[in-house]
Amino acid sequence: MNAYEGNAQEGTTHDGNAYQDILVENAERVTTITLNRPERLNAWTPRMADEVRHAVGVAGHDPDIRCIVVTGAGRGFCAGAEVQNLEITASRGKTRGEEVLHPNDIAFENVTAETGAPDLDGLYPGRFGYLYDCPKPVIAAINGPCAGIGLVFTLYCDFRFAAADAKFTTAFAARGLIAEHGSAWLLPRLVGEQTALDLMLTARKFTGEEAARLGLVNAACAGEDLMDVVRERAAHLAVMSSPRSMAVMKRQIRAARQQTFADALNVADDAMHASFGSADFREGVASLVDRRTPAFPDL
């Protein structure tokens, strides 16, 4: 059994203690994780890193959950790393092998064998690779300031929606840092190399509205409408999309970045034949013929 499967309860971490830096709510087959340090604009801490990772692991293994939403409490999403942690790191330095905030990644062993999806193990290591490996779609609802590691976190999410007036910045160049946690690989694939260089090298601030124009987020909307827009997308995914199909396609798309076209085509052919024998395919066809809402089985 995976370390994150079993009897973990909402609101507790793997060691049995209550969450301190996040809130977790389950409703309508959607888990909403709220970064909950509003007095610090939800600045990222080692505890928050571990708690978010754990909550995603629990939701990813819960058959009753079909989608995961991550947002911030108060007026911010995540203002980057907690300043006190930055000060400590700056004063004592950090060796290459020393990991301060990096817990072990989650493994979702229950997915690939049953669905025929590509195995991502080893393709996306690092602090946020577990978001790619999670079989459930993950939506970032960026309600306010989003900087540094907070912005990097959203790059690993499957969808990003932002308040139009939310302020973004990569921040790294302004702090004497570099493009951290794989963001130099991820950001150009979302917005193009020229725009990625602009955002990284200048560390300039830009709004959610510009982020939408650049293709960094799926859409920007009025702040008061953000969660309604995100809930609508999450509800659609939770009801109208096959959990099995979503798990397979997430892996296909992420694995394809490392594959030739021929390899990706072979994977797709194998996965397609596997899907023909699945209960999800039978239900998808039946609901189409019956003109009703599908009732897909749990993953």
CATH architectural label: Alpha-Beta Complex
Structural class based on helices, strands and sheet pairing: alpha/beta
CATH class term: Alpha Beta
What is the rounded Rg? 19 Å
- Provide the CATH topology: 2-enoyl-CoA Hydratase, Chain A, domain 1
The oligomeric state is single chain
- Tally of discrete structural domains: 1
Describe this structure in words.
With 299 residues, the chain is α/β, with parallel strands linked by helices. It has a single domain, classed as 2-enoyl-CoA Hydratase, Chain A, domain 1, CATH 3.90.226. Helix content is 43%, strand content 13%. It is built from twelve helices and nine strands. The strands form two sheets. A six-stranded mixed beta sheet has the order 1-2-3-4-6-9, with helices on both faces. It has a three-stranded mixed beta sheet with strand order 5-7-8. Helix 1 links the parallel strand 2 and strand 3. Helix 6 crosses helix 7. The longest helix has 16 residues. The radius of gyration is 19 Å and the shape is globular. The N terminus is likely disordered.
